[in-house]
Amino acid sequence: DRSTIVNLELFSTIREGNKKGSLIHLLDRTKTSMGGRMLRQWLLKPLISKEHIERRLNAVSEFLTKRQKRNEIEEVLLRIVDIERLISRLSVGIGNSRDLVNLKLSLGEVDKIKNLLRDNFEATLIGDLVSNINSDLDNVIKIVNESIVDEPPIDVKNGGMIKQGVDSDLDEIKDSIKDSKKWIQELEARERERTGINSLKVKFNQVFGYYIEITKSNLDSVPADYYRKQTLVNAERFITPELKHHEEIILTAEEKIKDLEYKLFLETVHKVLEFTIEMQQASKSIASIDCLISFALLSEQNNYCRPEVVENGELKIVNGRHPVVEKLLEEKEFVPNDVELNQTDKQLSIITGPNMAGKSVYIRQTALITLMAQMGSYVPAESALVSIVDKIYVRSGAADVITSGLSTFMVEMVETAHILNNATGKSLIIMDEIGRGTSTYDGVSIAWAVAEYLVNNEKISPKTMFATHYHELQKLEDDYPQKVKNFQVSAIEQNGELTFLHKVVPGGASHSYGIAVANLAGVPKEVTERAMKVLSTLEMRDFDFEDWLEGGTHLDKKRNQFDKTSAEKNNFLLKELKSIDLDKLSPLEALNFLSDLVEKVT
């Protein structure tokens, strides 16, 4: 869903909205526009069939091992333009002759890739992709090659596109133009000799057409059959009946050529588009090959492993890494972590630890590794056993959606409701800081109830990771030891200094190190010192929240008992206070009455 796409930063970062820092920016090593679009589709719609996932993984594996042939294919891919876009342009009538030439050249490169793949690769998927590149595409190449010149103009209505020999009428008209242009070219030499004017020139412009230009110093030598057309400062322009005759032949012929060439261009486009299905199939095959090679490059450059895909509900990752975060750490080395989830004894993991320790990175990398595996990609881990999931849900701390009128907490609850109402037993759920958008008691109560629902709902029992600051939730492991496991992202505090180890270890965290994190963030010392005093005061309060939570199924009973006792005390106090006549009490009597009343209540 959209929330998961945003929270996993699949296409853009949450904070800046940039592509850099997103998963697609890391994954995309494609060489063609078609491959880039296909990769986006794969990311949005990962596979849910083990057979289809294995087919992609087998193809990626072969591209990894056959590096030299892969490099050759990459070089050819770089020369392929956007075939899908060219087909679209031609189909809607906005294509030009250069589009046809680019299409022809690209289909020629497609044929080279077909031959490279057919002769050197054995993976079933690669074989199927090769089969989808139809030999009929040679007809498209032939059609364009026979009709369109190698370097045509962009404008399809000004001629210059169609080769000699395509149409006899066109060739005849072109020949007539050649004859007239030759006559005009020879005219200048003939007239210079006839008139004796060596500076005489025959020129052309769009306004007057062809004309003879003579300087003013030679006007006395102008023949009688010259007709003045235009006077300039230093020269005059003339025409002759013969010149106008040949000009008429040329201009009329040129208009005919433009119309006829455009007609022939449209016929060529129509013939090419008869192979639209074959071209689209070839385009999809090239896009898929581009994506598979991109996965191979990604794995080779980042030391990824091939995931083992299963269907038993188990997820076991050894030394998993966040694919994007590990690349953003320029000076520090990423700390890998293990993950183990299933639908039996490790269904729900509760992860606690201080801010900045890496809880969010840890749970998100689990979702990303699962997603990448189901795309058919290798994954950032030492090893990964990945059971196919039908849906991945990621609920994270959201910002206010001001334009929709929804607060942070409302957004949080809407997204949580969507997950609880749509998750299945094959889903993977990532919950990050649920309940923090409201008061502490409300928040922990909701978080507790949601976790309990996911554990108790035998119809679904989805694999769930629950990152939280509510340490009270750690008691769920005691209540549901067969399903819930506590983990913490370790940190060390020494002499007021907090060091994040970023290592996930079994067991719950004892506290959140919030004030220590505030120190790291540069909060003034007097503020953090005051915070320590307030914290100490709060920790000494009589109310035991954990003891309250231990009520479990008896919670409602305790609440009823509390409400009943409170009501009895309120009635007693009201009755005693109404019995007093304040006007008749002395100050000493009033104090004694108040003392007796306090003693009775407590």
Structure explained in plain terms:
The structure is a single chain. With 602 residues, the protein is an alpha/beta fold. The chain folds into four domains: 24-160 and 275-302, Orthogonal Bundle (MutS, DNA mismatch repair protein, Chain A, domain 3), CATH 1.10.1420.10; 168-256, MutS, DNA mismatch repair protein, Chain A, domain 3; 308-549, P-loop containing nucleotide triphosphate hydrolases (Rossmann fold, 3-Layer(aba) Sandwich), CATH 3.40.50.300; 561-601. 52% of the residues lie in helices and 13% in strands. It has 22 helices and 14 strands. The protein has a six-stranded mixed sheet, sandwiched between helices. The longest helix is centred in the middle third of the chain and has 33 residues, at 241-273. It starts with a helix and ends with a helix. 33% of the residues are buried. The model is unreliable at 398-403 and 552-565 (pLDDT under 50).
